[in-house]
Amino acid sequence: MSSTYINFLWNLLHFIAIALFGMTFIPPSYTRQLLQNMAKSAGKCAVCGADLTFKYRPMEGWNVSGFICGSCYSQKLLEHYIEPDRRSITKK
Question: Which residues contact 27 (CB under 8 A, 6 or more apart)?
Fold first, then answer.
């Protein structure tokens, strides 16, 4: 199939989907580009230096500049929310 014919079919499908269902599609070239960008490493964790597969934005009170990994984010959440409450509990 030629690329002109494929583009025609894509545009026709897009028009029909909008007319019938009110839906839009992400073009295949854009989808491919998104998947390639997601597959690349997103950088390094600001706390432990591990490769980031998903970026977490730290809270302002944590004094961390940059993105952090999931395990560091979980640890920081634990320190921020759970541990201050447990510090006041004394063991009997």
Answer: 10
